[in-house]
Fold this protein.
Amino acid sequence: MSTTADLENLPGVGPATAEKLKENGYDSFQSIAVASPAELSNKADVGESSAGDIINAAREAADIGGFETGADVLTRREEIGKLQFIIDELDELLGGGVETQSITEVYGEFGAGKSQVTHQLSVNVQLPQEHGGLEGRAIFIDSEDTFRPERIDEMVRGLPDEVIEATLEAREIEGGADDEDALEALVEDMLDKIHVAKAFNSNHQILLAEKAQEIAAEYEDDEFPVRLLCVDSLTAHFRAEYVGRGELANRQQKLNKHLHDLDRVGNLYNTAVIVTNQVQSNPDAFFGDPTKPIGGNILGHKSTFRLYLKKSKQDKRIVKLVDAPNLPDGEAVMRVQGAGLKPE
Ligand SMILES: Nc1ncnc2c1ncn2[C@@H]1O[C@H](COP(=O)(O)OP(=O)(O)OP(=O)(O)O)[C@@H](O)[C@H]1O
Ligand SMILES: [Mg+2]
């Protein structure tokens, strides 16, 4: 987070304007960078053209990323981790699991299991590598009040016994998979490694993505670095706030900036990024083909992997891999059960 003094480095921003900006939630270069000139001019009492200058300077200041060599890029790519669902058919479909350094979009209608996926992967990411995990922690940006610690509890207990045993051992928790004290300690330890924040509106959600970068930096050298960043739901606030045709361009611009931030966390900290996106099953004129989620093209470009979840009989869900760059399209089956996401 920038201090007021930092904001004063922006052109035409003196102490009074800096103070006004901060009061209105523009407390970092990033939050100013995503504002519109009209909005900023209004809130900070500056002319619209000065507001434009301030925003441009903030954009430059916010994007400090430099160049890297091809060798650096190669090293980074070699570090890509695969986070497993621990559902063979699905992990194979994904070429080994959900990749770090990429955005994976999970979309489908209500009740399709998108939030179940974010919960299950918040558990799995913490598991030992030989059991499909990445020995990392998770950040969960929750825009729909969807995160449930009780569900994490059920999913941890629902892991296969040998996975529980190995995880207990890795964390030096005494006891086995049938020991209630050990299970309780394990659940608590895993909940401790899921950092949850509720996003109250789209601007707040954008700020939380910046905050996520700070958390990832804080734990970079930790025993459990951040290896998963979930945003559930990515699109709900944006859709509710930017209504109507006239707002479409504005919405896309903000969403794009948000995805860019998420992508950056993924790349800088070797983190898998999962975003969820609700789509209607009955295509109408606005939403179009359900297998082509809105959000829209912009989301398509930024999310490298897209998983379409489709409800089937009872707890069965069809998971469809759509337009992956290096993998054939295909589908797998999973079940949403009390113990978590399970193979057919
Ligand atoms: N503890 C549980 N035991 C069994 N099934 C569960 C449990 N919790 C949730 N489910 C199932 O998961 C499904 C809900 O999935 P989920 O909440 O992930 O949907 P979603 O895709 O996130 O929907 P939305 O778009 O409304 O957020 C329901 O079918 C529900 O039966
Ligand atoms: Mg949900």
